[in-house]
Design brief:
Strand content: 25-35%
Distance between the termini: 13 Å
Shape: globular
Radius of gyration: 20 Å
Amino acid sequence: MTGRVRGVSFNADDQWHAGLQQGMLALAQRARQVDGHPPFNDQMLVDLRNGAADSVIVADPSGQTIGAAAARGSLFELVVDPAQRGNGIGTRLGRASLRRLLDQGERVAQTWAHGTLEPAQRLASALHMERSREIHVMVLDPRPHTPTHPNATDVLIRESTLTAEQVARLNHAAFSTDPDQGSLTTDDIRARMREPWFHPQGLLVASSRAGLPVGYCWVKAEPDSTEGEIYALGLVPEARGKGIGRALLDAGIDALRAQGRTHIILYVDGANAAAIMLYQRRGFHVSSTDTQYTIRSARIEP
């Protein structure tokens, strides 16, 4: 697809190359610095770095990437250069993404508004998309953390020795009802293990006395940053309600503190009341909210 908005060219680019990748990632970084929120979620960033995302690119006359949309499956996300907003680029990107998903046979299309900023809300409204889900970003109180390690949980928490296949199986058992985390494949896990932020000591696994993995806490520490993230924390159903989640959370916080991370965050589904309560009791509070918007194919404009 090609088109123009005030002298800016749009191109559907299915041929992945290094220049495209660098342009999109650089644009995403510029937007994050201004907005305070990343324009792409973690899975989309992994796909962008590995060339697995479908893309629509916007370039100015000099060839600089000033807008981009990326899609995988039924989900698309987009970003517009902060200096180029307000001239219709975001709307055109959104409509182009919806049409492509419709052409590919998707019955439902979804997008995330990270931080639920006002421009993103207006764009979702213009695309006739409706709120369908919320993810809260929670931040740990900066006061000193006092860990409360398990007493009667009968588990051992240590650095993981599991293979990517074993981590994928554990993840699926822990997040079988989660549409995002629970859908990760072994290849998705391997891709994360290739990310710059991955460290083997940041994947902590809780094992039963019989040596069976029953839960894990994966922490994320980006290079050259003071921020750390409780990236994922999950338990198999039979291990819940025994204090293991609390112990894993404490172990994850300790691991990030040991790496000098002074700002610790996590993401949690707004409908997961039990997890939110656990995090609040450990000193986390809601800092912002990401909103998912959804539209069915019958409402997508041709």
